[in-house]
Amino acid sequence: MHIISGYKKNKKIIAPKRDFRPTQSKVREALFNIIEVKDKIFLDLCSGSGAIGFEALSREAKYCVFVEIDRDAVQNIFINAKNIFENESEKYKIKRIAAEDYAKRTNEKFDIIYFDPPYNSKIYETVISLIIERNLLNENGYLIVELSYKYYKKFLENYKYNLKYEIKIYGENVLIIFKN
Asked: What is the 8-class DSSP label of residue 66?
């Protein structure tokens, strides 16, 4: 896996060796063609390999916070960050914490939050509620949620907030892009 575009284009991203599901390059490319990240504060929530956050930084996001609970994945994110952004450690922060706990505790606000837990996870509604209720998105910010095609309609049936959204479908991957 590699960074698709930006000033770190083609830098290699090492994914955790277990059963992680990194966001496909076609989905990453489509996302960053829709959302402008330059000079934005970015949160990669449930980072996995960190590919989304690294792509955002390569496309000149101002700053990125990577949040991941899995120990091996966090170690990979540290290795990738060091290899890709050798002398630019001021551009990112890596936190080993559950997404729910981070959303409960952080006082940071973001221009863009990318939320991609494991597809079978039961934390979607809780974390999104915390993000909205705690006002973690800056004005005109985006919350992008990645879901499986099988689950997104059920997810939207339970959606209860006033954020407008659009749906983008890429095979088995669905992005719901909420605008604050």
From this structure: E
Q: Is the pTM of this model over 0.85?
A: yes
Contact 137, 114 (CB under 8 A): no
Q: Are 76 and 47 in contact (CB under 8 A)?
A: no
What would the pLDDT profile of 6-24 be if each residue is shown by its tens digit? 999 999 998 877 666 667 7
Helices (H), 35-70: 51-58
How big is the chain, counted in residues?
180
Give 147-152's long-range contacts (Cβ < 8 A, gap of 24+): 147/119, 147/173, 147/174, 147/176, 148/119, 148/172, 148/173, 148/174, 149/173, 149/174, 151/119, 152/176
Residue 39's SS3 state is coil
